[in-house]
Amino acid sequence: MIKHHSQRVGVFIDTQNMYYSAMKLFGSKVNFGGILETAVAGRQLIRAIAYVVKATGEEQPFFDALYERGIETKARDLQVFESGAKKADWDVGIAVDAIRIGEILDVIVLVSGDGDFCELVDYLKHHGRQVEVIAFGETTSAKLKAVADDFIDLSQEKDRYLIKQGGARRNLPRSQKLSRPKSQQQPGRPIGPGDLDI
């Protein structure tokens, strides 16, 4: 995979997917700053967007911390239907942004392991874009890995992309100590600001 400094890069982060994968596999939080650095790989970052579902209405500190690292945020409220079912995904929004913004990019980096993005990857490649996927290998669709031009498995460098609970945080750079203590995580609940490190 050729990566050179003149390539224009856009990074699209499926925050929910990353959070739940890291917690399920390793009981850890995600270092989004480290992921962004790997995604850009010394190239020209045009846009980096993290897609988040609002949980508590107190997400602003998390949004501000992402912004300080050059990551925009897009947030939407959790949808609750009369049946009690809940919907908290950004799949369509991520796909639309990748297609629209992709018109001015050379490389689209999709930070997600969701197999629903396979058709998006095919579309972008058909239109001349290089598509790279970054996610945890164990929870990434095999088909998504196969259709991407490049796949980076975050599980191969856990120390770089994960932030362990507890004392390990003391050794982190100041920029990675911005989130609040972890709240109780319940299945199906969107991520709140206390659940995420960046």
Report on the architecture of this protein:
- 30% of the residues lie in helices and 24% in strands.
- Strand 7 (107-111), helix 5 and strand 8 (130-135) form a beta-alpha-beta unit.
- Strands 4-3-1-7-8-9 form a 6-stranded parallel sheet, with helices on both faces.
- It has one domain: 3-Layer(aba) Sandwich (Rossmann fold), CATH 3.40.50.1010.
- The protein is an alpha/beta fold.
- It has 7 helices and 10 strands.
Summarize the structure.
This protein is of the alpha/beta class and 198 residues long. It is 30% helix and 24% strand.
Structural class: alpha/beta
CATH topology: Rossmann fold
- DSSP strand content: 15-25%
The amount of helix comes to: 25-40%
Mean pLDDT: 82
Q: What's the story with the biggest beta sheet?
A: 6 strands, parallel
Please, what is the CATH homologous superfamily?
5'-nuclease
If you compute it from the alpha carbons, what radius of gyration comes out, rounded to the nearest whole angstrom? 16 Å
CATH architecture: 3-Layer(aba) Sandwich
The ordered string of helix (H) and strand (E) elements is EHEHEHEEEHEHEHEHE
Stretches with pLDDT under 50, minimum 5 residues: 167-189
CATH class: Alpha Beta
- Widest sheet: strand ordering: 4-3-1-7-8-9
Overall outline: globular
> How many H/I helical runs?
7
Straight-line N-to-C gap: 27 Å
**Overall number of structural domains:** 1
Number of strands: 10
